[in-house]
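Exercise 7 asks you to align residues with tokens for two separate proteins.
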Amino acid sequence: MKFNTLKRHIREGVKNLGRSGWMTFASLSAVTVMLVIVGFFLIVFLNGNHLASSIEENVEIRAFIEHGTNEEQISELIQEVENETNVNDIAFIDKEQGLENLIASTDIEAYNSLRGESPLRDALSITAASPQMTESVATAIDEHQYIHGVEYGAEILPDLFQITNTGRIAGTIVIGALLFTAMFLISNTIKLTIVARKKEIQIMKLVGATNGFVRWPFFIEGMLLGLLGSIIPILLIGFGYHFAYSETAGFFEARQYSILSPDQLIIQISVLLASVGLLVGIWGSVMSVRKFLKV
């Protein structure tokens, strides 16, 4: 395609936006509203998935060591546990440190008198290579010599994983349904803009215009509709999430969790929304023009 021809197509595509008037406004409104909804649910879904992953990563196995186990035996035990399949990390917590952790987490002053003669057991804090492997790893560690017992939340762990997995599946389905709905509504609104000018297309074909010559201005128009319609959702989502993050980040940090920072998220969401707008705009225009090219 010659450069002058491309310039002509771009110029015509831009002019078409003004010629369509209210139809252009309707298309831009449809793109804007649907992308705002999609962007909002994407923010919720991605942060929900991040929180679920954080909760799962905090799952650990606490293996308590028999009283009277000496340092050499503890070193041998640690080496054996490190060699276990699917063990990701291991840390030794002596009984005095365990008592300090207990005092810090409960603020019960009576525990202060136990300093220096902690009744607790030395313990190993272990994380599995995958949270879903926690139970099998805990079972294997419990069979080691010098291990008095293990704790890993056996009563709640299956329910926890079921909740997080169900949340991910439900979120994926909702986002997929929203994207499909957005594509359907936006493309059909854009199609109405094109259909309103079907006589113009047919006349161009009758005087000898090629399919490509007819199609390109509408291709540019659809692309511009999608791109322009994504600007407001990107700005709303960007500024809105910055505000929400500043208001809620401290709440989650106080509970040792976090939500995705705007720097991590906004660029990704912006690129995704702009891409969806562009693709849907182009697709709606091309599919609408195609039916009028056979004259």
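Second protein for Exercise 7:
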Amino acid sequence: MSDVEVVRARALDGVAHGFLGRSGGVSTGILAGLNVGTGSADDPEAIAENRRRATEAVLPGARLVTVFQVHSPDAVTVIEPYSDRLRPRADALVTDCPGLALGILTADCAPVLFADSEAGVVGAAHAGWKGAIGGVTDSTISAMETLGARRERIVAAIGPCIARASYEVDEGFFRRFAEADPANERFFADGTPGHHQFDLEAYVAHRLAAAGIRTGEMLGEDTYAQPARFYSFRRATHAQEPDYGRQIAIIGIS
């Protein structure tokens, strides 16, 4: 699919993966583009076609697997696709099975893709602020280890997400992170009175490094600031739009 933009990470070179945005899809209106979110009010047939296009752009012929994301720290091991009705509530997936495309949906939260090429194990995590501070990346790494991965070999990449300049939070949000670890204050910059600017991407990168991941890449793509390329929940909220799209990050074993 030449018109589907696939953003790839150098850290994952040689692994079938991609962070996708809006381009190349069939959705229209405020959701125009490659919207893959079943939680949106989009035409189900358009969503299905967008998911097919996204999968084909990253791992042709693979079967896409997603979960019912709930901002948790939970990771599941996948051996075959779930039906929509039976998708587990979780925010990360891991597998060692070829032909499966693990998909994580985002609209400002950080998608994180993982691989241990030597072990033949991959993972994908949805790291919003709740999942990030709750340890979703740690859970993903541990689940990969149960399949034979070794954390010193695991590489990870953090895809398009809301950047610090676009992510204003209140004092209570700041205190939650500072009380968890005073060192977390470095991920916040001063904002308007009573507010701070939070660097989600840098915080997730810190959690990866603290877990023993030696190679972690940040793509530095702000979803909020690029309306033509990415969906953004916060941007849609600020614009008082009635709905918002979701983009997908995919990784799999050829």
